[in-house]
Amino acid sequence: MTDAAVTPGSQSGLRQANERRVVDVLRRDGTLTQAELARTTGLSAASVSNIVRGLRAAGTVSVRDTSSNGRRARAVTLLRPPGTVVAVDFTADSVRVAVGDSEGNMLAREEIDYDVGSDAERAVRRAAWLAETTLQRARIDLGTVSSVVAAVPGPIDPGTGAVGHISCVPRWAGFHPAKALTERLGLEVLAENDANLSVLAEQHRGAGTGAEHVIHLVISDGVGAGIMMSGRLFRGAGGTAGEIGHIALDPRGQVCRCGNRGCLETFVGANYLLDMLPQNTDVARGPGPVRVGDLVEAAREGDPGSRRIIAEAGTALGQGAAIMANLFNPDRVIVGGDLAEAGELLLDPMRRAMELGSLGSALERLSLVRGELGRDAALYGALRMASQHAN
Q1: Bridge partners of 77?
Q2: How far apart are the C-alpha atoms of 167 and 276, rounded to whole Å?
Q3: What is the pLDDT of residues 257-312, one digit of tens each?
Q4: pTM listed for this prediction
Q5: Which terminus has fewer CB within 10 Å in the chain: N or C?
Q6: C-alpha to C-alpha distance for 347 and 203, rounded to whole angstroms
Q7: Which contiguous run of DSSP H or E holds residue 90?
Q8: Over the stretch 132-178, which tens digit does the pLDDT of each residue have?
């Protein structure tokens, strides 16, 4: 095979294709000399030399002097695959984009406030614009992007890619975010539930490091759980595994958006918590809309009403987590989301409720901790999944 036999196109396209051939061979076979690379890829020695020089300058390969059959040679070792990955995170009130290298390390990040839940198509258009803008500001060519993963605040059917009908963005029901973003960006996009991506990130580089069976609770407008068993994501048959927010705690409680009464979400969801604040408190009378962060700050400063609301939320969350502990027997339960910033004010009543509701053997090796990656957990998880998909 000659160099000209590679996919037709521009000179830069030909070079990129040849670089990919060299990288693929190094990934498959390990360290090789430049002469071995030329024989294996079918490229000329001069082409391999130029490609290796460029990959070395980019930090993709290392080169050292060696010998082969008694002659001097240059051994080439792959350090990291080339390419860029992109993460998109749709939250209820914002769109976030991160750009990472081939290992999933974050290189750039941008965020805009946006009412994501109002219109799925418009949210996708804004996300595509923000992704392109972030790449431009980072001086990264869209053509170098090898994988894109989008985080969505709702269950995703693994077979169809459609958003489930019960989520924090009800107008997205039946929408296919991966397909829509693929059409906008001209790149293949994967869509995944935000809690699943959060547990992937925390297990890789956060509070779940070293644990094999991890459950990550994400508390926002609703409550979701990312479940990792034996180091693998557990999504369930239709992608709804981990919808812990709809565990029924009180058959006479408030009606939940899912149609049932007394779901966990009605005890710990942001809107329900904020509705419990007395209107005559300093927190409720503050400028602008009251957020969960305001409630947490007031609790930390000693406000008794805010502390009571968070403690009761912790008890309810512990009751739900106790059920998860009995079912999955994890060794780590991580709590993320704005409410998690309350720390022990939330975690202590959680532990007490779990002790009452779980088997002793289920708690024997379990540790309950706060997430370490904060509001960027889903972004880091999307970068992680994108890098795995690209490689």
Answers
A1: 62
A2: 22
A3: 888 999 999 999 888 888 888 775 666 666 667 788 889 999 999 989 999 999 99
A4: 0.78
A5: N
A6: 19
A7: strand 84-90
A8: 999 988 878 787 788 999 999 989 998 899 998 888 888 999 999 99
